[in-house]
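[recover] target loaded
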C-alpha cells in the first residue's frame, strides 16, 4: 500500500511512500532524481535572494509545487511584504503551471480576498490545516484542497473527505506517515486501503496534470 505525503521536511527512503519534500531556499540544496519537491518562500523568511533562486529552479521537473507560500500574522515580516511576496508566488505558480501550497495563520480573510482578486487557475492547497468545520467548508466551497497532519479537528477532516479534496502530510512532525493514515482511517471509519487509494487519486493529478 502506498502512502502519499503532500508536505514534509523529512527525507524518507521507504519505497511505499510518495512524498513532496519542502526545500529551504536559504540553504544549499541538491535535487534527487527520484524525489518530488516543493519550492517557495515562507512568509517568515522573505527576501529577494530567495526569489532569484526560486525563479531559477521552479521550472525543474522534480519541483512539482510552489510553496510553502502564504500569510502569517504571527510572523515578524510586515504584512504588506508578506502579501506582495505571496502574490508574486501566485503569479509564478500560474506561469509554471504548478499548484500552490499555502501556509496561512490568522489571515483567512486576507487569503480569500487575494484569491478573489487573482483568479488563479492552478489548485491551492492549505498545508497543516487545523481549522474547524466552518472554516473548512468555507475553503472547500471556494475550491481549496486541505492537507491534514497529526493535529486536526475531526469534523473538518470529515468535510474534506466528503468534498474529495483531502490530503495528508507529516510536515516537520516525527510521526510516520503510515501511523497518520491509520489514525485518519480510524477517525473516518474507513479502511486504510480506501484512504490510501482515495488520497492517491487526489495527490497524483496534482503533481502530474495539475490544471483542474
Amino acid at each position: 500500500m502506498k502512502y502519499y505525503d503532500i508536505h514534509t521536511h523529512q527525507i524518507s527512503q521507504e519505497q511505499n511512500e510518495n512524498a513532496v519534500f519542502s526545500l529551504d531556499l536559504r540553504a544549499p540544496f541538491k535535487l534527487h532524481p527520484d524525489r518530488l519537491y516543493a519550492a517557495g518562500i515562507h512568509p517568515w523568511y522573505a527576501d529577494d535572494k530567495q526569489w532569484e533562486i526560486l525563479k531559477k529552479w521552479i521550472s525543474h521537473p522534480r519541483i512539482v509545487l510552489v510553496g510553502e507560500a502564504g500569510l502569517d500574522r504571527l510572523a515578524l515580516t510586515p504584512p504588506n511584504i508578506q502579501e506582495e511576496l505571496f502574490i508574486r508566488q501566485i503569479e509564478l505558480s500560474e506561469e509554471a503551471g504548478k499548484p500552490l501550497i499555502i501556509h496561512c495563520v490568522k489571515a483567512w480573510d486576507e487569503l480569500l480576498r487575494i484569491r478573489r482578486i487573482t483568479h488563479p487557475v492552478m489548485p491551492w492547497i492549505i498545508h497543516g490545516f487545523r481549522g474547524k468545520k466552518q472554516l473548512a467548508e468555507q475553503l472547500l466551497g471556494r475550491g481549496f484542497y486541505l492537507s491534514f497532519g497529526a493535529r486536526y479537528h475531526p469534523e473538518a477532516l470529515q468535510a474534506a473527505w466528503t468534498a474529495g479534496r483531502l490530503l495528508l502530510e507529516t510536515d516537520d512532525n516525527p510521526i510516520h506517515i503510515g501511523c497518520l493514515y491509520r489514525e485518519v482511517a480510524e477517525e473516518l471509519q474507513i479502511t486504510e486501503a480506501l484512504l490510501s487509494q482515495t488520497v492517491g487519486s487526489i495527490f497524483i493529478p496534482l503533481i502530474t496534470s495539475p490544471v483542474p
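[recover] notes: The mean pLDDT is 95.
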